[in-house]
Specification:
Order of helices and strands of chain B: EEEEEEEEEEEEE
Oligomer: heterodimer
Helix content of chain A: under 10%
Low-confidence stretches of chain A: none
Strand order of the largest sheet of chain B: 5-4-12-7-8
Radius of gyration of chain A: 16 Å
Number of helices of chain B: 0
Structural class of chain A: mainly beta
CATH topology of chain B: Jelly Rolls
Distance between the termini of chain B: 11 Å
CATH architecture of chain B: Sandwich
Largest interface: A-B, 65 and 67 residues
Number of domains of chain A: 1
Strand content of chain A: over 45%
Chain lengths: 142, 143
């Protein structure tokens, strides 16, 4: 039996008004798991490959990915690229923050253009924005 | 002005052949003052769900420290469009039942595989459902 569960909760109460949210996403056919803790500096490194061929540091696809920035003071940049290193998206994770993805599909343009088609992420890179940081991530696919 | 800390926890658990791989972390975003929370039914045409500008307005925030977006549909994915008006635009597939998070407005994209250049502040978030209408829930806050 293989399963994967991702639960995200948020709690916020201001002036006695509660704005809580919670969501649990479960899959019952997980096949691979990948957990990695790695230090990063301002020189970008590849932290995960995504593709069909099994290899060290590679996962076949993404059904769940959560990347945590463990630093208490430094921001981290996460860069996604597709095969051929064309479409590229870069996000900032604040100190103690995290970023999550439920699949490998995305698309970008830098012209304000409309959506055309999804591409699959092939490589994920990380770098510290200003000073050293540690990231911890968990990935799975089914 | 009333402020409060926002606490968010993400827990991931994978069980394979009786072996559990798990990771759980909680983060606190301090001094929240503005909150926007909504549940909406979205169709298959792109629909604005949140905007950012210098002045607050209906559906418009002036900043972002945390956003949680849930696709409550049980069948269809939706596409999240995150864009800097007329510029950097990204599209992410959010499968049925899944969550998308943002901790800030920073985005940089290119179509050449190039390295990071500079972050731009996103101005707008749109949702488009695939196949049929579906429900989303959104919480956004900043301090």
């Amino acid at each position: 039996m293989a399963s994967a569960t991702n639960t995200i909760t948020v709690g916020l109460t201001i002036d006695s008004v509660v704005y809580d949210m919670s969501n649990t996403f479960t899959t019952s056919s997980a096949t691979d798991a990948y957990i990695r803790r790695v230090n990063v500096d301002t020189t970008e490194i590849q932290i995960l490959q995504v593709g069909a061929t099994v290899a060290a540091g590679k996962i076949e696809s993404i059904r769940g990915l959560v990347i945590h920035n463990l630093s208490t003071k430094n921001t981290v940049r996460i860069r996604f690229t597709e095969t051929g290193s064309n479409q590229t998206a870069i996000f900032r994770i604040p100190p103690k923050g995290f970023h999550n993805f439920g699949n490998a599909q995305y698309s970008v343009n830098n012209t304000g253009g409309a959506f055309v088609a999804f591409v699959n992420v092939a490589s994920i890179y990380a770098s510290a924005e200003y000073d050293d940081a540690t990231i911890l991530f968990i990935a799975q696919h089914d | 002005m009333a402020t409060a800390n926002l606490t968010s926890t993400v827990s991931s658990t994978i069980t394979l052949d009786g072996r559990t791989y798990s990771l759980s972390k909680t983060t606190t975003v301090s001094n929240m003052t503005n909150v926007f929370q909504t549940r909406m039914t979205i169709g298959t045409s792109a629909t604005d769900v949140l905007a950012f500008a210098a002045a607050a307005a209906a559906g418009t925030l002036t900043d972002l420290d945390y956003m949680m977006l849930v696709n409550h549909d049980t069948t269809n994915f939706c596409t999240i469009t995150i864009k800097v008006t007329g510029g950097d635009t990204s599209f992410f597939k959010l499968t049925a039942g899944a969550v998308f998070l943002l901790f800030n407005r920073s985005l940089d994209v290119n179509t050449t595989g190039a390295a990071f250049a500079a972050f731009n502040n996103i101005n707008e978030i749109e949702i488009t459902f695939d196949t049929a209408s579906g429900d989303i829930e959104l919480l956004a806050a900043f301090g």
